[in-house]
Amino acid sequence: MSDTSKTVKSDSSEPEKTAQAAKSEVTKAETAAKADAAKAAKTAGVVETQDTVAPADDPTAAPVAVVDPRLLVREEGLKGYVTEFKRKVKGGELGSLPVVIGLIVIWTIFQLQNDRFLSADNLSNISYYLSATGMLAIGLVFVLLLGEIDLSVGSVSGLASTLFAVFVVTHGMNAWLALVLAVLTGIAIGALQGWFFARIGVPAFVVTLAGFLGWNGLMLWLLGASGTINIPSDTGPVHLLGQSSFFMDQAIIGAYLLAGLAVVLSLVGNFNEQRRRKAAGVPFRATGEILLRVGALAVAAFAAAVVLNDAAGVSNALVLFLAALVIVDFVLRRTTYGRKVFAVGGGIEAARRAGINVPMIRITVFAISGGFAALGGMFFAGQTASATLSAGGGNTLMLAIAAAVIGGTSLFGGRGTVWSALLGMLVIQSIQTGLDLLNMNTSIQYMITGGVLLGAVVIDSVSRKSQKAAGRG
């Protein structure tokens, strides 16, 4: 009896030994596969952790490395970049490509219709007048990244310029102090609206629509029967933001200094990112690619400097607008707060489970939108040296929203960049200025801008569908 039991026990242990041996072999094979993948990544100049999977037709076979297609790009040279570009386009990762192509087409058409369109003076006017609405668009980018909308930015901008005029003209307040109070008012208004949305649960559309009406009414009440308050423009912020105020008093070297600064900042930023990504063990741009990108930026920046110097120089309004873009871009891409904004826009429940204070992010985003709306109001005041009934009215709101969306920020949230405010405003301001040169009616401007906006939203929707189909949406 005992011999029989020993025999049975011995036989039952054989499968266990076999299973353990097989498991050991799989582990060894997996380790070898990972080593091979790491070696391939190192050869390509990229440090990347590879996943391993077993072949579908033989689940018991040793796992094989799944190579990220990005790792093959630099090995294939130019052909690899072309392949990667095609992959991104098919996957809906269009980036700024559509708006850049659209801008080239718009400039070509208007130049063929009127040879003054690409003149230095006209391009200088475009660069100046895009800054005011562009400031509103910067704030709206934050809101759109959450997948929400702020309909009050036009009214808030008009109210801010009116408050500034009342403080300075009626009460004799220092202009710079009045500017600070006007911007703080915009931030407070945005935070209040964000609180109703985040804490009370009122839809952002309704809250900001109420703000659109209410703050516009308050602006009209402050302006009184005259409807206009003229602001002294010989000194202070209104002078600084005026069309006759230029960086370094129109010194030719000023434009080239700005261009050089842009190139240096881009170079330093790209190499810092490369270093961080290397240390983190994720794909990074090759040095040659960085130099090519920075070289392209240098050509564009110095070409713009030449053109603006041929006119009258770089306006201070444009310099401040570009500075705001750089700062906000850093906040969104390089800070924890910026990553939280993208996380909330990408999925509220996932962000909440990750420990993000979703209501606070929402409130601060609307506060930022209100602050930039107030700054935009000051830019409008600088253009006209007054606060008027039309401040922030008309199509200001629609153009600001259109600029952010046309530039590439998604209406569905979670995707976009602050530079879309610049690209979108370049498109819109180019259309407006070109049609003015052709003496076209304002109604034509509205229809064309509306068509461009619809096209941008369609591209965004199709892009999202393509990403989902490719498994990246």
Can you summarize this structure?
This protein is mainly alpha-helical and 473 residues long.
Walk me through this protein's architecture.
The chain has 18 helices and four strands. About 75% of the residues lie in helices and about 5% in strands. The chain has helices at about 1-45, 70-75, 80-90, 95-115, 120-145, 155-170, 175-200, 205-225, 235-240, 250-280, 285-310, 315-335, 335-345, 350-355, 360-385, 395-405, 420-435, 440-470, and strands spanning about 50-55, 65, 230, 385-390. It has about 475 residues and is mostly helical. Strands 1-2 form a two-stranded antiparallel sheet. Strands 3-4 form a two-stranded antiparallel sheet. Residues about 5-20 and about 35-50 have low confidence and may be disordered.
Element order: H for helix, E for strand? HEEHHHHHHHEHHHHHHHEHHH
Provide mean pLDDT, rounded. 82
Q: Please give the largest β-sheet.
A: 2 strands, antiparallel
List the strand order in the largest sheet. 1-2
Instruction: Tell the overall outline.
Output: globular
Instruction: Tally the beta strands.
Output: 4
Beta-strand percentage range: under 5%
How far from one another are the termini? 65 Å
Low-pLDDT residue intervals, each spanning 5 or more residues: 4-19, 33-51
Rounded to an integer in angstroms, the radius of gyration calculated over CA atoms is 28 Å
Query: How does the helix and strand content classify structurally?
Result: mainly alpha
Number of helices: 18
Helix residue percentage: over 70%
